[in-house]
Amino acid sequence: MDNLINIEEYSTQISKAVRYHGYTDYNYGKCLTEAIVEHKPKQILEFGSGIGYSTLNLALGCYINNMGSIFTRDIWETQSVGHFHVHLKGNFISNIKKFPDLASFIDYEVADYNVWLNSGDTNFDLIYFDINNDGDKILEIYHKLNVKENKGKILLFEGGHLERNNKKYQNVRPIFDPLVQETTNLTLIYNKAPGIIKIVL
Ligand SMILES: C[S@@+](CC[C@H](N)C(=O)[O-])C[C@H]1O[C@@H](n2cnc3c(N)ncnc32)[C@H](O)[C@@H]1O
């Protein structure tokens, strides 16, 4: 492994270079890096690449491990923030290019999470997803993937902030709904916003 100071510096550089509007805490990226270092997955699948902050932090884990590939997917619709139109895919590409050592671990493509989920494709060791998660989405992916051949694989997902995770919105099950917690045996591994939640299949 490179010395730890360089890794820490890399992590800071990613946080400075890539800011996602709406997020207030950027240390959650370190948590993603640490999860990759801990589990050493060969195939990492990410849905919700956005502007690349999470992707780069996952890639930093691969860089430390000197192994692994990230297949990151997003529909990259243009977002409107007030009068501004945010071109997520353009931002993603320019952010990834700022870190050539990390970009070599990253494969990106336009793809819809729901199409993948219904495809039965289980070619992954670890998944990270951040696509406006809620309790029903967590239950859905858990039930689809909780089969024998996926035993021991890791699901990581963006868990918002505690208020969102607990609050019942109309027709949307919160992430910390008792049914979700009991069914999936999830653990909160980063508890600021955006929190990071882990499920071991
Ligand atoms: C909060 S952002 C992700 C931020 C990203 N992880 C980052 O660090 O920049 C959520 C993303 O989910 C994507 N998304 C929403 N629904 C999706 C779907 N069905 N399939 C793939 N991506 C989706 C959006 O286009 C958006 O880029």
Based on Cα principal axes, name the global outline. Answer: globular
CATH superfamily: Vaccinia Virus protein VP39
At the fold tier of CATH, the topology name is Rossmann fold
Low-confidence stretches: none
The arrangement of helices and strands along the chain is: HHEHEEEHHEHEHEHHEE
Helix count?
9
Number of domains in the coordinates?
1
What is the top-level CATH class?
Alpha Beta
Which architecture does the CATH hierarchy give at level 2?
Answer: 3-Layer(aba) Sandwich
The structural class is alpha/beta
Order of the strands making up the biggest sheet: 5-2-1-6-7-9-8
> Radius of gyration over alpha carbons?
16 Å
Alpha-carbon distance between the two ends? 29 Å
What small ligands are held by the chains?
S-adenosylmethionine
Please outline the major beta sheet.
7 strands, mixed
What percentage of the residues does DSSP assign to strands (E)?
15-25%
Q: Name the average pLDDT.
A: 91
Portion in helices: 40-55%
Task: Characterise this structure.
The protein has helices spanning 4-17, 28-39, 53-65, 88-97, 100-103, 113-119, 135-145, 162-166, 178-184; strands spanning 43-47, 69-74, 79-81, 84-86, 106-110, 126-129, 154-158, 187-190, 196-200. Helix 1 (4-17) packs antiparallel against helix 3 (53-65). Strands 5-2-1-6-7-9-8 form a seven-stranded mixed β-sheet, with helices on one face. The protein has a two-stranded antiparallel ribbon with strand order 3-4. The protein has a single domain, classed as Rossmann fold. The protein is an alpha/beta fold and 201 residues long. The mean pLDDT is 91. The radius of gyration is 16 Å and the shape is globular. The chain has nine helices and nine strands. Strand 1 (43-47), helix 3 and strand 2 form a beta-alpha-beta unit. It binds S-adenosylmethionine. S-adenosylmethionine is lined by residues 20, 47-48, 50-54, 73-77, 88, 112-114, 130-132. S-adenosylmethionine (SAM) is lined by residues 20, 47-48, 50-54, 73-77, 88, 112-114, 130-132.
